[in-house]
Amino acid sequence: MKNIFLISLFLFEICMFSQNKNVKANFNVKIKEVKGDLNKDNLTDKVVVTQDTINEKSPYKLEIFFAKPNGDFKSIVASTKIIEAQYPEGRVNYNTGNGFSDITIKKGVLIVRFELVRGYFEHKFRFQNGNFELIGFYEVYSNGQGVITTTDFNLSTGIRIEKAERYDNDEVISSTKKKIVISPLPKLQDVEPFENELY
């Protein structure tokens, strides 16, 4: 009897595991769409952010489409890493207060912006070398005690500037400028917020 119970339990676990593996992503809620020329071919490309609201974590997907001369669009790259899920630990758990804010296209550069509890940060991507490469990271945040820190990292040049100052009297507490060369530059589909101390 004990063996039958254990076999039944084992089969139940296998069944539940296979059901979880077969659950497909359902990115059917459009959060934002922007248009602009991203590959310098004078055609208007588009970037779409969608969300899977059925999933417990409510993850996002960012997808880039290049325009074709006939008016159609071709999917070039998609990422479910670049934007952190709305509920990283699930809906019933503590929310970090961080979150997706916006996407924009400026002069052919895609900017993905995130809000922090006391600030924000941006990743900047340009289509070059056949990929969307990270060319810039910018962050501003406050410690909640009168000090604001700004980080501006130009990955193309390798120049990373970090400055801390008081926002009540503009006193500069510290300012550093370093050269940090990253080669090859990170690709959009590989970048994950909060997983790298430099960007």
Structural class: mainly beta
Which strands sit side by side, in order, in the main sheet? 5-6-7-8-9-10-11
SSE order, one letter for each helix or strand = HEEEEEEEEEEE
Span of the ends, CA to CA: 57 Å
Report on the biggest sheet.
7 strands, antiparallel
Task: Please characterize this protein's 3D structure.
The protein is mostly beta strands and 199 residues long. The protein has one domain (26-190). It has one helix at 2-22, and strands spanning 29-36, 45-51, 60-67, 73-79, 99-106, 109-116, 119-128, 131-142, 147-154, 159-166, 172-179. The strands form 2 sheets. Strands 5-6-7-8-9-10-11 form a 7-stranded antiparallel sheet, with no helix packed on it. Strand 7 and strand 8 form a beta hairpin. The radius of gyration is 21 Å and the shape is globular. The model is unreliable at 5-22 (pLDDT under 50).
Short description:
This protein is mainly β. It has one helix and eleven strands; from the N terminus they run H-E-E-E-E-E-E-E-E-E-E-E. Strand 10 (159-166) and strand 11 (172-179) form a beta hairpin.
